[in-house]
Amino acid sequence: MAPVAERLLERFEQRAARAEALAESPSSGREPLRFAAGLFRAQGRAAAGVLQAHGQDALSGSLERDVLRVEAPLRSVLRFLSESGPVALREASRARGAEAADLFSARLRTAWTGGPEERQDFLSHAVLRPYAEALVHAGVELDRPREPGSGRCPMCGAPPSISFRREMPGSDGAARFLGCGLCGTEWPTNRIRCPSCGETDPTRLPGWQSETHPAARVEACETCHRYVKSVDLSLDARAVPEVDELRSLALDLWAIERGYVRLEPGLAGL
Ligand SMILES: [Zn+2]
Ligand SMILES: [Zn+2]
Question: What integer pLDDT is reported at residue 118 of this predicted model?
Fold first, then answer.
């Protein structure tokens, strides 16, 4: 395997290994973490398949043009979901997998080019991630609507699915980053700014934590009623934000009960 594909596989494997390790710790909900581990491995293999296609003849970054060449690896993610996903997802994945090839690719194209207000459907998102992440990894520009400076992913234009804080050498306090659940990109952002509507008034940006999982936090916005989950990496440098947040799904339920909508669902689909 080419070194570039090995590095990409390793990124997915690190996430899977973290999810497996957390699934064994007592205060975690096991099922979402085990599911995440399996999904990351399936996505990693699919991403390596996408890179292989890219190595034979460069992919364009336009799903419309690339779809026939990446359909086989992407379908393998759907197969994983239909065999090992949560029950509700298994049925939906089987139905999706049984659809004719042109409908399969039409759905993916809609999810890929969907407008900014379109909320990703979980299946399309899970299936498209290996394509998106492999393209970013290979330096291919993604043909998706992007709005620089909007709080959305600078590489693919998706809303962030996670936020995290990390100690930076030489700076006071932790710096804030956002993470993309579609292409795996992480980017720095202002400490006080809603990534959905751009609100910067701190009195309109409340945050909540629970004693059970002190590293996790809900960062909400009173203006647009969206929230992102945040993970504090200064408490545990081994944490992988989109994996570690799966330990505190109770916080999501708490926020949803209060009328907030998660800006972009995480791996638990919340
Ligand atoms: Zn992205
Ligand atoms: Zn907002």
Answer: 57
